[in-house]
Amino acid sequence: xxxxxxxxxxxxxxxxxxxxxxxxxxxxxxxxxxxxxxxxxxxxxxxxxxxxxxxxxxxxxxxxxxxxxxxxxxxxxxxxxxxxxxxxxxxxxxxxxxxxxxxxxxxxxxxxxxxxxxxxxxxxxxxxxxxxxxxxxxxxxxxxxxxxxxxxxxxxxxxxxxxxxxxxxxxxxxxxxxxxxxxxxxxxxxxxxxxxxxxxxxxxxxxxxxxxxxxxxxxxxxxxxxxxxxxxxxxxxxxxxxxxxxxxxxxxxxxxxxxxxxxxxxxxxxxxxxxxxxxxxxxxxxxxxxxxxxxxxxxxxxxxxxxxxxxxxxxxxxxxxxxxxxxxxxxxxxx
Amino acid sequence: xxxxxxxxxxxxxxxxxxxxxxxxxxxxxxxxxxxxxxxxxxxxxxxxxxxxxxxxxxxxxxxxxxxxxxxxxxxxxxxxxxxxxxxxxxxxxxxxxxxxxxxxxxxxxxxxxxxxxxxxxxxxxxxxxxxxxxxxxxxxxxxxxxxxxxxxxxxxxxxxxxxxxxxxxxxxxxxxxxxxxxxxxxxxxxxxxxxxxxxxxxxxxxxxxxxxxxxxxxxxxxxxxxxxxxxxxxxxxxxxxxxxxxxxxxxxxxxxxxxxxxxxxxxxxxxxxxxxxxxxxxxxxxxxxxxxxxxxxxxxxxxxxxxxxxxxxxxxxxxxxxxxxxxxxxxxxxx
DNA sequence: CTGAAAGCGCTAACAT
DNA sequence: ATGTTAGCGCTTTCAG
Lengths: 335, 335
Hints:
Rossmann fold; elongated; DNA-binding; six-stranded parallel β-sheet; homodimer; four-stranded parallel β-sheet; alpha/beta
């Protein structure tokens, strides 16, 4: 059987309480007693029981992380930032994935509440009445990572989706492009809407009429980038640049273009979004929007912990800085 | 304040125990009572306290996962398999990363024991006396994922590192290669040794003398693949193929070759290891060894749960099947 | 500075 | 089928 505090108490002759205090570095314990008890605890192979402690003091030092798909390179890096920062603050992370399933998202929130996590970091769907109610009535601190939820203000950490895509599309227009293929992201996701709206705004600003055949909706998977561009080429849709909801789509697009004998960037230019780590190693390397993924995870933990420590603190949306990165998949005319 | 079982007991007139039973679907409760209690619980917004339950029944339904780096695409996929399978069995996952730091590995094992996880899945370092002792004395079930630990038998799920690299290098030799650059993996990691040994064995089988300048040691990062090949080219080292510890190194190598005007596979062929999801989208697409990453995570959970359920079960190493995948980065002469 | 007692919320064992 | 009692291992009062 494992060594317990009462065993140490018995072995040292102190009360169980004094043992508890000594092991926790509580002030009002003489240095000699503390060292004596700690030495004995080590010798006996004592391992603190966090569960029992949590139960008593009603905090678990665990945060629940509800991601979309932790093997997606975007979220993998965000989650890494979360884990790293949480660790620095003495917290651990329970991690689950929703695959964009609203029901699963809801179940996990409840599960984590039942597991008494101290706070929740969620990559949420955009619109879901039931989930909205859940969040509104949620009794523990929570932040949304990289996304907004319709009907809930202040809980999101964002990354200038609208502004960045507006900048990208405006840049491409300034470079002479008029027929721009846009590979859009999954529905029911605030980023998709925000990025698409940025693109549409750029067209509007330039007085370019929208050709609906130039917008292709996808779920953001790399294969869809490949298939969508294949399809567009087969249908004879003309375009001089492809700008994408994310880098994965852009990578799929690159493959299709290559297989169809289109040279990038000479014949067609390609712009991504996210700046995945691997994007710089594509051939050609991918022009994209750098989203601070690791920093997003770090900031999310910081923000969450602020609310865990001060439950009365008001929530405010944060919008992290992005920047455009021009690489080999675009002709960069020095604008 | 949150609703507790005693509140439901009071509200329904049943004892707290009956409430507990009804909510857990315990047999010996009449259907009417159960439904009545459940309805009341829902109405009162009751959320089960898993911590308190765990404490009582001494199991947490949580497994601890100690990865190397969950944002590395290899481990990201393994971890995804773990999460998915754990969920199917009603378990959650606490996830941390070691960055190959033996001290951190040790600290996390202790941390997870103190958090009373039911079992441990670890991506461990190979040789470390202190960690060896720790695992030998560990009182909870544990499995090593994709790696061996020197001095501990039976706890590993592996993937034919030696056999696969032997096959790859033999294939390349059969294709006429004599000067093969090998980008080796990090030290203190069983995979690195196993894969390198496979390569060396192939050379030996073919009676090819080892040229030490053709073995370059790395930590397996993509940038090192790039830098190592740059260096080899600058030094005028001759080789007709690069075979790599992992796909990331191979990707870095592809970039260097491209920048140095070497055509792949015409001038130099490249072979990876792992078959990362992204590898098929490289230009050219990467020939590699398919390691069943997701399945590795799944099997690891299955194996761990078997030992959680039957503590007396003997441990046995498992060696998952791999297969060679020939893509555009090698000339495939139909052997 | 140390000890005694109470209790966190739940479940298991036993009794009815 | 339901209730009573005890206790998981720890921390937090409150006393001294």
